[in-house]
Amino acid sequence: MTGMNKNDHEHRGFMLDVCRHFMPLDEIKKLLQAAAVLKLNRMHWHLTDDQGWRIEIRKYPLLTEKGAVRGDSFFGVTPEAERNSGYYTQEEIRDLVAYAKDLGIEIIQEIEIPGHAAAMLAAYPQFGCRRGKTGVWEEKVEISGGIFPALVCAGKRETLDFLEDILDEVTELFPFPAVHIGGDEALKFRWRRCPDCQKRIREKGLQSEDDLQRDLLMEVGEYLAGKGRKTIVWNDVLAGGLLPAYFIVQQWMGGRQETRAFMQNGGTVIRSDTDSFYLDYCYGRIDVRRIWETPRVPEYARGLEDRILGVECPLWTERIASLERAAWQLFPRLTAVSVKMSGEELPWENFREKVKTLEAELETKTGLKGAPEELWDMDPETAEADRKAETQTIFSGKAEAYEQMERKIVSLDAAERLAESLGIDRSFVQRGGDIIWTEIHGQEVPEDDDGAAILIRQLMIASDSRKYGAWKDIPEEIWMETMKCFPRFISEHRRSYGWDGFDRYGWTTRQIGAKLFRIGELEYELAEDEEGRKEIGLHIPSDAKLEAERMNASLKEADAFIRERFPGWAGVPKTCESWLLSPALKDLLPEGSRILRFQEAFELEETYPEDDAALEWVFYVAEGQRKELNISRLPEDTSLQRKMKAMLMEGRKPGAAKGVLVNSEFIIHNS
Ligand SMILES: [Zn+2]
After folding, report:
1. Is 539 assigned a catalytic role?
2. Angle between helices 323-330 and 333-341 (to 10 degrees)
C-alpha cells in the first residue's frame, strides 16, 4: 500500500471554536505562530454556534448585538462568567486573515447552517421555523454545551436571502476558495412541525427532513459555486444523499459508508475523526501514542487515498477558556499530527523524539506550553482515570442539568425518527413529542389521553438502547422487526377503538430492554424465574403467519442468534403460553385445521380457562379495552369470529394453554 506523502496533504490544519469561549485576536495570533512552526497551512475558524455569533455582518447588526452576548454559562468546571461575549469586527478579521497569510496559513471560516443556530435566531427569529399557525420559535443564546433544536427555516425564501446576504459579506472577508457552512448535529424536530418546511418537502418531492437539509445546503452550495467557491460541510449532510463533487466533506463521526460513497463519486474529504483528531478530548482518550498508531488511511478511504485532502484537528472550547488551556490541549498532539502527516513511517521512540524536538522549538518561538511528557503515552489505568475525570467535569454542578436536558432532546428527536421509519402516523407521534418537549422544559404538560407520550417515551428508551445500551450490537434486521410491535399495537388499538392510541406499556418495555426479540414470524423472550431457572418464552404475535416454513425459518434463525449473542441461553427450552394452544380451539375450528396442527408441536402442560388474550387474536381487541367490552357489538366477519362470539355470549371462556416445544420444528399440514 502506498502511504500518503507530504504532497498529498494539501490540507494540514486545526479548527478553533471561538463560540463556546471567545478568544482575543492576539491569542489567536499566538496559535497561528505555533501552527506555522508545525508547517500547518489551514485554520478553520468556527465563528457561529448556539452559544455565540462572533463575526460582524454589517447588514444584520443584531447578529452580534444580541448573538455575541451571553451571560453566565454552565459547561462544567470552566469559570462561568469568563469570555462569554465578544465578536470580531470585519476590520479585525481582514487583519487576521492577512496576518495568517504571511505565515503561510489560510483561514477558512465556518457559518453553521442549518443547526447550531440558536445565537443567530436569537437575533433574527423570523428566519427560524413557524410555531403553530402564526408564531415563530423564540430562541436565546444558549448557555451550556450540547445540541439544541434551533434550525433556520428551510421553507422560506426570506431565510435563503438572509443566508446569501451573510455569505456575500463572508466571502468578501475570506479569500479562501472554499467556504464552510457546517451542517452537523441538526435535530429535525422543528422542521417536522413547520408548515413552510413541510411544503418545500412536498413541492420538491423530497424523501425526508435529512433530504431537506441536503437540498437546502445544495442550494447554498450552488450559490457559492456561482461565486467560484467550493463548499465544505460536516459529514452529517450525506445522510440526506450524495452531494456533488464541488462539496468537500469533513468527516468527524458516523456515516462512514456515505462518506465512502461520496469519495467514490469523486468527492474529497478532510479527516477529523473524533477517535484520533479531536483535541478537546482528554489525553486519556487520545494521547500522542494514539495519534502515532492512527492508520495512515482510514477504513472508509481504502483504495481512495487520493480523495483525502488532509487532516484537521478540531478544538471545541466548551471547557477551554484561556490560551494556556488551549495550548495544553493542542500541544503536543497537534505537533504529533503534523509529524504523522509528514508521511515518514517512524518507530514509536523516534516519533516521540521528533515530537519532543518540535515541541521545544515551538515553546521557544511562541512561549506556548503543551501537556507534560507523562501524558504522551498513558498506561491503561491512568488513561481510565483521566477519562473518568473528564466525565465528572462534564457532569459537574449546574452543567449536569443542561446535559440531561440536551440528552432528552436528542433522544426525543431520535424517537421521532424511529417512529417515522416504523411508519407510525406522524400527527400522533408529534402530539406525543410535543408533550415530552413541554415536559423537558418544565412547562405545564397537556393531558396525554391517547398514550401518544407513552409511546414516545418508550421509543426514546428504545433508541437510546440502540445507541448505547442492550440493543447496541444486535443486527439491524432483528432490531427493526422487534420494533415493529409499536405500529402493530397502534393499528390494533385503532381497529378496536376506531382511533389511534397506545396502551401497551408493559409489553413494549420488555422488548425495548432487549429481552424480547422478534425474529421473522415469532417473538422470543429470555426469561428467568425467581430461582434463576431459564426459559425462552415463545410468543406468537397477532400478525404472525402460521406457516410451517416461515415459523421454522424463524426458529432456526433464533437459535443461531441466541447461540451467538446469548450463549448462556443456547438449548434452553422454549415454552409458549398462548390462546392458540388452547384445547377450546377444537370446538371453534374445523377438524385438521392448520392452527390445530401447529398446536401439536407443543406438549401442553397447563390450561388457563380464564385467559382472554384470544380477544386480541380473533377480534383485535386491545388489552386495555377487554375489561369493559360489549361482546354483542364485536364484529363477526369470519366463521372463527362467529363461533367464538357465540361461545363468549354463552359465558364460556376460550382460555389459553402453556406448552413446551417438543420438536425442533413445527409441522403444519394443509388440510
Ligand atoms: Zn421551517
Report:
1. no
2. 40
